[in-house]
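Summary for the steering committee. The consortium agreed at its last meeting that each partner would contribute one worked example illustrating the joint modelling workflow. Our contribution is presented below. We chose a case with several input lines so that the handling of multiple components could be demonstrated. No manual editing was applied between input and output; the record is shown as generated.
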Amino acid sequence: MALAGAGFDAGRPDDAVPADGPGRSARLRGELRRHPSLLVGGVLAAATVIVAIAGHVAPPDNPLAINPGHALAPPGPGHWFGTDQFGRDVFSRVLYGLGIDVVIGLTVAALAFAVGSAAGLVSGYLGGWIDDIVMRVVDIVMSFPPFLLALAIAVVLGNTVRNVIIAVTIAYVPYILRLTRGSVLTARGADYVLGARAVGASRSRVMTLHVLPNAVGPSVVQATLMAGWAILDVSGLSFLGVGIQPPSPELGVQVAQGAPYITSGQWWISVFPGLAIILAVLAFNFLGDYADDRLRGQGS
Amino acid sequence: MPGLEIDGLCISIGDHDVVHAVDLQVKPGTCVGLVGASGSGKSLTALASLGLLPRAARVTAGRILLGGDETVTPGRDRTAAVRGSGIAMIFQSPRAALNPVLRVGHQVARVLRRKGQHDDLKQRCIELLGAVGLLEPDKVARLYPHELSGGMCQRIMIAMGIAVEPQILIADEPTTALDVTVQADILDLLEDLRSRTGMGMLLISHDMSVVAERCESISVMWQGAIVEVGTSATVINSPRHPFTAELVRDLAHLPETGGLPAQSSSTRPADDPAREAGG
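What follows is the complete predicted structure of the assembly.
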C-alpha cells in the first residue's frame, strides 16, 4: 500500500534513470540526521510493521483460543501481557490486532487519498458548476465531526470490516479533496501549465501530468497523518461497538472488552492494546511530520 | 493566406476593452515584431491566437485565421486542434514554463508523442535538443528544470515549441529573463530555425532594439491598439506615432554595445544583422 509513492511516481518518466550522486545508504543517513522525525517515525513504523507481521505469521499463542483455566492471569513469564477474561493470550492478541488496525488505517488513507485527490483535481481544474456542486457536498460532509459521521455511516451500513473502512473513508475524503483543490488552483495558474498548453498539451494531459504532480504534495502529508487518525477512529468505533466485532482481536475491541476489568485490577487486558494503538498512531504522525518537513523544504 | 492572420481582433476583460481592432499578419518564413509597453495588449493578442486567454478575458469581435482557416471568432474557439501542430508559443520566464517535477527530456517527448510519433521517441527527442544548440543532449534530457540555466530552459522550451513543426511560433519576450550574451544566442537560434523550417514567427517584445535587429516588419501596440505598422527600416527611421518615436529615441540613447543596430539607425537599421544571422 504505497500510498505516498503513487502520486509522485506517476509523474516520473518511464525511462527514469537513477540520479547520479551519493549512494542510497549515504543519502538515507544524511536524511535521518536532518529530519529526526523520520528517525522516530521510521523506527516506530518499522517496529509496528514487524510486530504486526510477526503476530500474523508466528503468534506466540492462538489469539482466538479460549482457555478458561487461565482466565485473567496477570502478565508473567507464560503470558507476557497476561490473559483476558476468556484466558486468551493478550500478547498474541495485541500483535495480531495491530496488524488488523495498521492494514485498515493504510487502506483508509490510500482510498481517501485516491478519491480525494482525483475529485479535488477535477473540481479545482475544471471549476464552474462542477466545482460548485463538489464544494457544497464537501461543506455538508465537513459540517459533521469526522468521527461522528463515520459512526453514523457505520451504524447505517452495518458492522463489517469493509463497511467500517467505507465509513471512515467517507468522513476523511473531504479533507484531502479540499487540500488538493487548493493546490490545484495554484498550480493551474502556473507558467508551466500555460507553457504546456501553448505547445499543444490536451486538457487531460495537463491535469494529470502537469497539475496533479505539482499539487499533490500537501495531500500526501495529510494522507500519511490520516493513516494514524484512521487507526484511532476505527479502534474508537470498535470500542463503541459499531466497528469491528468480537471475537476479532482488533485493538479497539480488546480495549472495550477489558474496560470492565480495569476497576477490579486486571488492567493489562485494556492497557496493552491501548499502548499498541498509541504506537501505531505515533508512527504515522512522525512520518507525516517528516513528509511535511520535506515538502516545505522543497519550496516551490 | 497561409500563416497567421489576425483581423480586427477585440478583447475585453469585464467591461474594459483591452485590445481594439488589432490587425496583424505573419507569413510563413517571416519574422514580425510586435512592440509595446507592458499592458499594451501584446500578450493578450498572442494568447488569443492560441485560445489561451485568461478566464476573465474574451474575444468580442474580429477573427483569427491560421493557414486560411478560421480558428478564433467571438464565442468560438477551434484552436485546440491546431495548438502545438499549427501554432505554438514560448514564454518570457523559461524556467517557470517547464514543469518542475518532470525531466526535461520527458516533457519534450510528451509533445512528440502527442503528434503520433511513437517509435524512436528518445532518439528524436535527443535530436531536437541538439537542434536547439544544447551540448550533450542525451545528458540534458535526464535533468530536471532546476538543474538547468535559464538559457538552457529557454532552449528546451523552444525545442518543445518546434517539436511538431508548427507553421507559426509566437515568442513572447523570449529573452527578457536572460542575460545579454544568452539573449543573442537564443535569438540567433530562433532565426536559424525559422530559416530552416520556414515557419513564421511573431516576436513580442518591449525592447525595440531586439525587434529592430531581428524582424522584417514591426507593429507597434499602444494602449490596446496597433498604432504603427511598417518595415523595420521605415518604422525606425520615420516613426509617425509619438509612442514609436519615444521607443526609437530610447533606442538611440542606448550605450555603445556593439552588435545592436541602434548606432546605425540613421542609415540602415535592421538589415545587416538580420541578413547575416538569417543566412
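Chain A touches chain B at residues 8, 11-13, 15-17, 127, 190-192, 194-202, 205, 209-210, 213-214, 300 (CB under 8 Å). Chain A is about 75% helix and 0% strand.
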